[in-house]
């Protein structure tokens, strides 16, 4: 009777870390330290496993570097639920091959060597089909292991415990089904006590799944007390220091972590002891999502000497190597070389001039027009020697491409004048308008006003630095779809080239206002922004970043990705820059620049020379009319 009643006895209340300390055994083929599991070996793991055990926590996010034991946390969570709290479990890996590797090399050795699991999962050699590589049954539940690139696996069955490893390596879409993480999440909606665990080293800022999930969590960080002054601190790379020899050579073996308060130098053993006394502190209120961030400095398996050697090697290897170090060693997102400047920094550098006024060094005007559903946005830029530029005007023409009044406003803009600092009126030398939205309407308007002052443009991906603008080509069609022999003159623009150039110009150092007043010149390409350019416009100008993505065949390519939805200011800047290229400003000789200065009554500056083309007219001229030729064909 006593033996029969013992079956009904509830299991002891254990957290995942308690269970692992009691039962988990590390396998020799899957761990450098085989034997009994000890959470105290890496104390920061305890808080993460307790969060997964907590009924009040629905989502657990782990954004970390490599070498901190995050995969073992997933193994412990799976083993705990198989033994103590049976449930349908799904583990999602980046690919099906990764899923098979985890099943064979990580899970199977754990199930074999942990005694309490051995009798609950069938022998893999049995013929009853309950223990397959990617699907394993146990009393009260099952474990399904899938690849994020397999939509059928993600949408197959309801799941209570979902664990997604290396989510930043998942494909953008699982086939045609959409985001793999969202697909997997939908499998958990029927369980009131569902648990979702997202784990990954981060990748590119603004495009990282794990970063986005971490920002929606309570953002916990591990604070470590100093052994000397007891000041708690987050361990950061800036506090790792090392010596140099007399010849200037780096000496990684001297690397120490320095306390941020008392500057005490910690050896590796001191650092590991300090980490064992640390604690998790949240930066935001808890809302059922617990987030954890870690870097390799916390790891008891990593020495600072090895980190310093990796850093020095990465620094010598260029951006791609540094990206790997930042992602995998520091657990931080990487900003590509084409990173957007901080819009607040740009706001601090704004200068004073009125809208519609052209500063003295601005010698000709171009505009970029971006066609939207309900409006056309136009930015007017003034250009000077060395492609120095000034934002002169920002206009929003309400109505959109379906409103004739909106197109009339754009037509009127071609004859409008802007006043130069010398008092001379200036008109647009060229307006470049995007044809990506309502293409036929843009072509029709361009034909109507003529192509002497208007350049329809089409943006294409990729970098073409030697010739970022090509054309024009005659591409146009009637309403019936018949191609016109002499249709709209379309220019093709490699937008990546001009976006990268714009951000490079925005990031470059320039003289202070005092130095400029004393006669110091701004470097070529300097972009001047006025005080009336508000925060929204500045955010639009810095709305994209350049990231490295991998194709399906594994090749790397650069791609611009949005950091926010609206980016009209950046687009109009690129079109206005393309208009300057079409005019030939990149190739004008000194005589052309001097001629423009003479027309405007501006003293010759000491700017750099440019190449050859015809200078635009500065004076006001009437709205161009399209030439009409009547044919006598057919009477």
TrEMBL record:
Xref: Pfam families: GpA_ATPase, GpA_nuclease
Domain of life from the UniProt record: Bacteria
Stretches the record annotates as Disordered: 604-635
Domain Phage terminase large subunit GpA ATPase: 31-280
Ranges of residues in domain Terminase large subunit GpA endonuclease: 290-586
The protein's name in its UniProt record: Phage terminase large subunit family protein
Organism: Albidovulum salinarum
